[in-house]
Amino acid sequence: MDIRVYGDYREMSRAAAQIVADQLRAKPDSVLGLATGSTPEGMYAELVRMYREGQVDFSQAHSFNLDEYVGLSPDDPRSYNVYMWKNLFRHVNFDPKRVHIPSGVGDDLAGQCLRYERMIEEAGGIDLQVLGIGRNGHIGFNEPGSPFDSRTRVVDLAEQTVSVNMEKTEAISLPTQAVSMGIGTILESRRIMLLANGVEKAEIVAKALRGPVTWMVPASALQVHGDVVVLLDKPAASRLETRM
Ligand code: GLP
Predict the structure, then answer these.
(1) Hey, CA dihedral for 56, 62, 67, 69, is it positive or negative?
(2) Does residue 67 line the site of ligand 1, with CB under 6 A?
């Protein structure tokens, strides 16, 4: 595992954006797996800046987001659909036809999940998957106990996840279920980039990267993948040294 530690969040975000830009330069029609949450916001801001300066081109790229809340319409301000358009898509030259975000509404969520998996496959699989990490080790919305061969499906959210996300986004309420790519789906990506910042992530980062590989720490699944780059700011890396 390639672990890189940066002085602060800004530096980490810049390095993450550079990895995405390099991916698109090497393969303009790359399939990107994209994440939400507060962690990648700086990376998206940096990608927008780079786009404005002509340093990155999304015109041929495909994207598949990790997850979406069940029951939120795509125009709900709490939805990850709104997050993605606000933070990235509307500022850059992504072709809306190549943008994919799971839908949390519809009569047949199970069928929609299957179709989402098929679309990823038809696009050729994910070249670069961006991930954040939840305080309990979740990746996407794969909470502790998620099987490592899980696929896109409807999941129940941990109480802590809902309360942390409500606090972070200042939402008065949030759904307790989501549609999430599975850990199996994530592990099939050719390359994975995990981002974490802040001291509140230090403990779980150490567990995920250095602890036992277990379903109870979903991000520990990344230890079995052959091409993972981990970008941390100093506080998030602060528990790593003692365990190395
Ligand atoms: C959220 C998202 C994850 C994200 C994680 C961390 O619930 N579903 O994809 O990586 O929790 O969020 P944050 O970056 O705000 O700490």
Answers:
(1) positive
(2) yes
CA distance 39 to 37: 6
What does the pLDDT average to over 179-208? Answer: 98
CA distance 12 to 192: 15
- Whether 243 shows a pLDDT value over 50: the answer reads no
Residue 225 is given by DSSP the state -
What's the average model confidence in pLDDT over 184-204? 98
Residue 179 CB partners (closer than 8 Å, separation 6+): 67, 68, 70, 102, 103, 104, 109, 112, 113, 116, 141, 152, 153, 154, 155
Please work out whether the CB of residue 79 comes within 6 Å of at least one atom of ligand 1: no
- Dihedral angle sign, alpha carbons of residues 90, 92, 95, 100: negative
To 10 degrees, the CA torsion angle through 55, 120, 225, 237? 50
Protein residue with least CA distance to atom 9, ligand 1:
140
What pLDDT does 242 receive?
A: 52
What atom of ligand 1 comes closest to residue 180's alpha carbon? 8
Report yes or no: 70 and 179 within 8 Å, Cβ to Cβ: yes
Which domains, and CATH codes, for the chain? 2-243 (3.40.50.1360)
Average pLDDT, the chain: 97
* 63-101 pLDDT per residue, tens: 999 999 999 999 999 999 999 999 999 999 999 999 999
For the Cβ of 168 lying below 6 angstroms from any atom of ligand 1, the answer is yes
